[in-house]
Design a protein that fits this description.
Length: about 425
């Protein structure tokens, strides 16, 4: 039997996601949205049009909202649905997602008042401990959280230093990420790398480290949420729309790596040049992000780790702040192959100045400038490392690794 979900951007009805009688997922924009002079597409891969989008056309965006791999399978098992059924997953957990998109059963009225469940430290610790077995709190009553990726995480509202779990379609303000069990000190690794990126002037999501009982976790402030104070007693949370580069290019999440038909850096620079409202600034920001990931040894910087941020009011499109940066090079069991190659090389250890010249040509940037930018950023990183490193063995070890990588590249790029 065919089923349908109403799709909203913030509080505006934009279209219907449909599962037809054959189980295929389709999408069509609502006529009222197409007639709106301020309408924007849900995705660069879903331009405004009257014709319905086929499963192949729309799956890149909609599947890209959902958790991936083993996390997705665990969520599906808990909910009693197929892990391959994107529609059913969005029906069950598509209340609070990345960006401004919200899914509700067709015909239901969109909530205008929101419910939150305030939790204490002990309750938070229990939730964090259970995440490997209950990702995104799936199956808990009235919890409809969906976040892309494979790492354990949960979306919360933090207001006046109190943490609450959003119910239904209530918006969150932060994402909490406990350590990955298999890899030592990921919280401190990511905190160092994100703090370092911020220290040298890159636009990043704001982070800090929290602790609940014996569990360290990273607190990431959502850049796709805005808090408006209506009056001294009332605060309104606004969703800002965003999509990652895989979604914008219509690439399904299981193909997020370039070697598996995922985005290349050339494609990333091309789409940013095409859609950014400030392309000169954003192309520079993307270049700096690529170089920074290379210098700190973040080999997992794939197409879902870069995003576009949309302003529905001004119709501006910008490169979103950076997120999910950590030195994967610190962990010997993780691949040394970069998610996207620089020039024609995947292995960061083999990267030479000529590969950045090739990148410059692909990205339409000045070769001398791109080559100079590598040692320039390396020097900036070295100058800020002592200020950012924390009193933790993993932070200290990762800082030393980054120092060695930067010193080597300064010598090689002279």
């Amino acid at each position: 039997m065919a089923k349908s979900l109403d799709v909203y951007l913030e509080d505006k009805f934009v279209g219907n996601l449909i599962q037809d009688n054959h189980g295929q997922m389709l999408f069509s924009y609502a006529e009222i949205w197409l007639e709106n002079p301020n309408a924007i597409p849900l995705s660069q891969s879903l331009p405004l049009r009257k014709d319905r989008f086929s499963p192949k056309e729309c799956r890149g965006f909609f599947a890209g909202i959902l958790p991936e791999q083993s996390m997705r399978k665990t969520v599906a098992t808990i909910l009693g649905i197929s892990s391959e059924n994107d529609f059913s997953m969005l029906e069950r957990i598509g209340g609070e997602c990345a960006g401004a998109v919200v899914f509700i059963p067709s015909g239901e009225k969109l909530q205008t008042s929101f419910n939150y469940q305030e939790i204490n430290e002990q309750e938070l610790a229990k939730i964090l401990r259970e995440l490997p077995h209950r990702p995104l709190m799936a199956g808990e009553q009235d919890i409809r959280l969906s976040l892309a990726g494979v790492q354990d995480k949960v979306a919360v509202r933090i207001l006046n230093d109190k943490i609450s779990i959003p119910h239904g379609i209530a918006p969150s303000t932060h994402i909490l990420k406990p350590a990955i069990e298999r890899f030592e000190g990921t919280v401190f690794n990511e905190a160092l790398c994100m703090g370092l990126a911020d220290a040298i002037g890159l636009s990043t999501a704001k982070i800090e480290i929290g602790r609940a009982e014996d569990i360290d976790y990273l607190i990431v402030e959502r850049y796709d949420r805005m808090m408006l104070r209506i009056n001294p007693e009332l605060i309104q949370l606004i969703r800002l729309h965003q999509e990652d580069f895989c979604q914008a290019l219509g690439i399904v999440p299981e193909k997020k790596y370039q070697s598996e038909e995922g985005p290349s850096l050339k494609q990333c620079f091309e789409i940013l040049r095409k859609v950014s409202s400030a392309p000169v600034i954003d192309l520079q920001r993307l270049l700096d992000a690529v170089i920074f990931n290379f210098l700190v040894g973040n080999h997992d910087a794939h197409g879902k780790n870069f995003s576009l941020l949309y302003n529905l009011t001004t119709s501006n499109t910008r490169l979103a702040p950076l997120y999910d940066i950590l030195s994967t090079d610190y962990y010997p069991t993780l691949s040394k192959k970069m998610a996207m190659k620089i020039g024609d090389e995947y292995l960061s250890e083999k990267i030479q100045p000529k590969h950045f010249e090739e990148l410059a040509e692909e990205a339409g940037l000045s070769k001398p400038f791109v080559k100079r930018r590598v040692p320039d950023l390396a020097q900036m990183i070295l100058s800020k490392l002592p200020e950012v490193v924390m009193d933790h063995p993993v932070s200290t070890a990762v800082a030393k690794l980054i120092q060695n990588r930067c010193e080597r590249r300064i010598r090689e790029f002279k």
